[in-house]
Amino acid sequence: MTLRARSPAWFALALLLLAMCLGAATLQTQFADLSGHWWQAILSPDDDQIRQIVMHYTFAPRLLVALLGGAALALAGCLMQQVLRNPLASPATLGVTSGAQLALVIATLWAPSWMLAGREWIALLGGIAATLLVFALSWKRRLAPMVVVLSGMVVSLYFSAINSALLLFHQESLSGLFIWGAGALAQDNWHDTQFLLLRLFIVVLLALLLLRPLSLLDLEEDGARSLGISLRKLRFAGLGLGIFITACVVSAIGLIGFIGLASPAIARLSGARTLPQRLVWSMILGALLLAVTDLAVQQLAPFTASLLPTGAMTAALGAPLLLWLLPRLKVGGSRPTPSTGLTLPRLAHPRHRLWVLGAMTLVACALALVVGFMLDSHSKYLSLAGIDDLALIVDWRLPRVATAAAAGLMLAVAGTLLQRMTGNPMASPEVLGISAGVAIGVIALMLLPLGIAPLSGSVMGFSGATVALLVLIVCNRRSGFAPERLLLTGIAISSLLDAMRAIVLASEDPRAQQLLSWLGGSTYYASLTSSAWILVIAIMLFALALPLQRWLTLLPLGAPTAKALGMDVDRSRLVLLALVALLTVAATLVIGPLSFIGLMAPHMARLMGFHGARHQLLGAGLLGMLVMVIADWLGRNLFFPYQLPAGLIAALIGGVYFMWGLRRL
Q1: Which residues contact 452 (CB under 8 A, 6 or more apart)?
Q2: How far apart are CA 254 and CA 183, in angstroms?
Q3: N or C terminus of the chain with fewer C-beta within 10 Å?
């Protein structure tokens, strides 16, 4: 029997058996003295027996919250995928969870009294705001699946950057919120259980009322309209239910990754064809996935310094499962043509605009070196550095400006190489998980007792990037690097980084603050020596990329066309991927994995009319340098003497520009 022929019951039964084994192990290790009295402890505990009280108010509600939360997120993901006819739609990829978290963070800092009205309503407002922004960006493209997902990723990254910036400024106030936000299912009463049970019941009831019209969305739009269906109202109703139940889960137990995306994918893969089947089996699988993960976390508690956040562990355990499922998952969409993406009319004389961009980059570097805030005993003031401040410029400002420019150049070139090689406008080191692979290697070096030697960070980073690239190739080669499957692979790899980051932050490790700054894209630790090295490496790698313009022109046409023109496609792809790995490792080690430049700069170059391979490489490189230098200057001076990482500022600047560009199309 093949995997596709099996019923979802096989997966559900396997998960149920695993949950029962883990549950029995938890009962034996934590509540062995209650043997024979477990049901009494769950239903009616003896107030004189402390273990029964712990069972009643902690273990039992935690298990039910995991089941309810997993089912709710799976239901939300299934509704979103059905409404948008997009197998990549989920609360995470549409930015709903990031919007809900940002709303809760803002309310915690500046309007704590609003929390009394109900956290779910604040989270709902944030989720709605994120979804409306995604719709505004993709409406002109008629909510095309690829554009919706791209918009959702941009919005999610944008909101996450704001969250990270707020955490850097208010770490003491928000550390507990971010530990909870990592998906902490710990309970001390039945409030969250009752809260989720009531709301899940209401949403399931409303979903059943919409079941027949939602099922018609499996047809083509014209066919659905001919049956009298108002697609706009139906989509708003379905998405409204998904956003509401997601907001309820986020407000109750924090961010839980992966469940809303993976559960419907597993259900569809294992044979659930009709919408009723997908809804039922998605909820069952989602509930069991989250329960199994939480029970495993409880079993690992004696071996860890602190209890691991379940939401982070869900992503860590679920990502390998999703990667295993990818070759078997039918994902719609075809490999894009060179016309796919965000384009504007070609420039008649692109060299003129390149010279302008080059001049703007030089001016930005000069201003970043000589203009900045100073601090005296009374106040801060903006000043223009002179000859007397040469030591300040050379020792402090020059290394940061050079590092920011070099990192921007390398990430922009890496993103351009990936987008042209795959013909995918969403390809970039950040989106496809290559930067995440570098970060995973560096974090592993920090967490594991391996001993840190010179260049060990570079070796581990390159190893992580290489593994990420190999995973991308293995999971996507047979599909011809179809955009949606490629993106799904990147999401799975990146979820591992998010999980590791959440675990480190939740562990209260003293190195967490330094790690958070690096992940945000900081140039704090740049020195003259390191900046000189990174600048030389950036120039050398960029010089290696320029002669490859013929490959970059032919590869977007497709492998058959490129081979017919005498090109060795496999060898060229291998060389380009190796160059992308080197560029990404060098940039990520000094600027972190979250700068957004690799996705943004090639699109900005295309929006400015640079379409030829050579001109796009040059334009994207200059734009990457310009944005990163400006971002570093703003990070140093915007809230002086406090500083923000350049990567966060670049994400904020680039996100606004990119959303503006999306909206124009």
Answers
A1: 445
A2: 4
A3: N
Q: Cα 400 to the chain's mean position, in Å?
A: 27
Euclidean distance between the first and the last CA atom of the chain, given in angstroms as a whole number: 47
Q: How far apart are CA 146 and CA 153, in angstroms?
A: 11
The angle at the Cα of 477, spanning 473 to 482, to the nearest 5 degrees, equals: 105
601 CB-contact burial (10 Å; exposed 0-12 / middle 13-18 / buried 19+): buried
CB burial of residue 104 (10 Å; 0-12, 13-18, 19+): buried
Q: Can you tell me whether residue 521 is helix, strand or coil?
A: coil
**Amino acid 360: pLDDT:** 94
Any bridge partners for residue 373, and if so which? 382
Amino acid at 492: A
Per-residue pLDDT of 77-112, as tens digits, reads 999 999 888 777 888 878 898 898 889 889 888 888
**Residues 279/272, Cβ–Cβ less than 8 Å:** no
> In degrees rounded to 5, what are phi and psi of residue 334?
-120, 170
CA distance 469 to 484: 16
The Cα–Cα gap between 314 and 74 comes to 13
The single-letter code of the amino acid at 409 is L
Q: Would you call the peptide bond into 641 cis, given omega within 30 degrees of 0 as the criterion?
A: yes
User: Which H or E run contains 31?
Assistant: none
Would you tell me how many other CB atoms lie within 10 Å of the CB of residue 189? 11
Model's pTM, two decimal places?
0.79
**Host H or E run for residue 430:** none
Cβ burial 157-185 (10 Å sphere, 16+ → b, else e) = bbbbbbbbbbbbeeeeebbebbbbbbbbb
**Token duo for residue 391:** 């030591």
Q: How far, CA to CA in Å, does 466 sit from each of 261, 273, 585, 586, 630?
A: 26, 37, 10, 13, 31
Q: Would you state the pLDDT for residue 647?
A: 79
Residue 395 contacts residue 389 (beta carbons within 8 Å):
no
- pLDDT tens readout for residues 321-337: 667 766 665 555 444 44
Helix, strand, coil fractions of the chain, as percent rounded to 5: 75, 0, 25
Q: How far is CA 168 from the centre of its chain?
A: 19
State CA 549 to chain mean position distance.
30
Type of residue at 241: L
The CA-atom distances, in angstroms, between 664 and each of 139, 345, 424, 425 are: 10, 13, 20, 16
CB atoms within 10 A of CB 631: 29
Q: What are the φ/ψ torsions at residue 382 (nearest 5 degrees)?
A: -85, 130
**CA gap 591, 419 in Å, rounded:** 21
pLDDT tier at 621, thresholds 50, 70, 90: very high
**Whether the Cβ atoms of residue 105 and residue 174 lie closer than 8 Å to each other:** yes
Instruction: Identify the three-state secondary structure at position 664.
Output: helix
* Pairing of the two strands 380-384 and 371-375: antiparallel
By the 8 A CB rule, do 564 and 431 touch? no
Question: How many Cα atoms are found within 13 Å in the side-chain-facing hemisphere of 188?
Answer: 0
> So what's the pLDDT on residue 626?
93
Question: SS3 of 585, please?
Answer: helix
Supply angle C-alpha 463, 469, 473, rounded to 5: 145
Distances in Å between the Cα of 463 and the Cα atoms of 445, 451, 521, 592 are 11, 16, 20, 16
Q: What is the pLDDT of residues 253-301, one digit of tens each?
A: 888 878 888 899 888 878 888 899 999 999 999 999 999 988 888 887 7
